[in-house]
Structure formats: structure tokens, C-alpha cells
Amino acid sequence: MAHPPVLALRGISKRFGGVQALVDVDLQVRAGEVVALAGDNGAGKSTLIKVISGVSPADRGVIEWEGHLVQIKRPHDAHALGIATVYQDLAMCDNLDVVGNLFLGREIDRVGILDEVEMERRARELMRTLSIRIPDVRMPVAALSAGQRQAVAISRSLMGAPKVLLLDEPTAALGVEQTSHLLDLIEEVRDRGMAIILISHNMGDIKAVADRVAVLRLGRNNGLFDVSTVTQEQIISSVTGAADNAVAHRTKGGKEAWP
């Protein structure tokens, strides 16, 4: 029997005042899979991530974790399940070094004294395991490149051994070479069995690392595609609603209607 998805959302809806941000959204992701979440600005992608991470709980709908019903009402609930999130702003402390950022809030101490040697050893081991190229883990984060900062942020999210990783536009501020390194890191993490939900506007990134792509449009599901068979044009048509308009035109009045 196939294992259930690590995370499954069914009928998720969310309203902010008079704005209906999400309407009956379904999404699921399995271990060892990257699901890209695509959609135009205002489609509901970031809202859905906030629902999953517990920042902004859903008004209605069902969340299942490994086949069991759960409630995610706050970030602590998501962390306890095994959900880690890396937002666009990264939430890094520029004045701290790489080690300090990795262990912020989870420092290792012995008899009340920080064990800097052990934390540095673990930081170096983590960088090596994930093939992340950082000149020195004692460098201030402010001195790192955008790509290196993004890699450190992802590494920090993995410290608690989560099962689901949420990435919000991780390559948005990166150059070509840095993007390539980061996509390699995402594949490395996926191949270790983690489930990843990737928000991205970049069709090249989606085709490079995603297994499936789920499209949101105006807060609703508007397509789920196998990346190995779908074209970029089909994804873009789903994002913009062009595919919907074509169907609506062809079936106007209940009959096929051609230009």
C-alpha cells in the first residue's frame, strides 16, 4: 500500500476582511518530492504558505499529516509536526556569524557555558553534508553573498530535522550561478527524502527541480501538472487564465464556439 502524503490540504479557505484570499484549495506533497506552487501576484501562494506554517490559520478546511487529521493554529504547531519555512527576507541576523545564525535559539551549552567548539564542528559538518561552499563558518552573515545567505537560511531550517520544507521565492534575488548552486541544494535535500513546497515565478527553476507544479489563480486551484510532461506554455496559460478563457470561448452557449 502506498504511503499517504506527508502533508495534505483539502478545501482550505482564508478570508482577510472583505478579501477572500483562498477558496477551497487542495494541495499535497509526498516525501522525496518537490511541488512547485505557481501563480500570479495575489493568487494566494504566500497566504497558503502562511496557513501551512501556522502564521495565518485557515478559516475552513482540513489538514492531514501522514494520513492523520491535525490542526495548525500557530507556528509552534507547524514546528512540532516537522514543518520548516524559509521566507524571502530570510530572517537572518547580519551581525552574527554563520554558526551563530544556525544555532540561534538552539545553542549548545555545557554546564551553562556555550560550547562554541561543538557548534562550529556541527556547522562545518552540515555545510559539508549539503555541499554548501562557505569560506568560513565564522564569517559574519553580512559578508556573505546573496546565494550563500540563502543556503545558510535553508541549512538553519534543516537543523530540527523537519519533514516538510517551505521555500518562498528562494532564487528571486540571485544571479545565474548562485541560482544553479541553490537548485542543486534543493535537489540534494529532496533526494534525502524531504518533501518540499517551492513558491516560484521562474519557470526555468520549476522545470529544473520540481516533480509537480500546482497553479493557484485568484485564490483557487487552477491546475496540477507533472513537470516531466507539461510545457512552460501550459503552466503560463494556467497562471494567466488563458487556458480557462479558451475553454470558455469554445463552450460558449453549451456548444463548441470557434473564432
UniProtKB/TrEMBL annotation:
Record's keyword annotation contains tRNA processing: no
Enzyme class: hydrolase
Alphabetically ordered keywords of this record: ATP-binding, Hydrolase, Nucleotide-binding
Gene3D superfamilies: P-loop containing nucleotide triphosphate hydrolases (3.40.50.300)
Enzyme Commission number, as recorded: 3.6.3.17
GO MF annotation terms: ATP binding; ATP hydrolysis activity
Domain of life: Bacteria
Coiled-coil regions listed in the entry: none
Pfam family, one: ABC_tran
CDD domains per the UniProt record, alphabetical: ABC_Carb_Monos_I (cd03216)
Residues in ABC transporter domain copies: 7-243
PANTHER family per the UniProt record, alphabetical: CARBOHYDRATE TRANSPORT ATP-BINDING PROTEIN MG119-RELATED, SUGAR ABC TRANSPORTER ATP-BINDING PROTEIN
Name the UniProt record assigns to this protein: Xylose import ATP-binding protein XylG
Native source organism of the sequence: Streptomyces chartreusis NRRL 3882
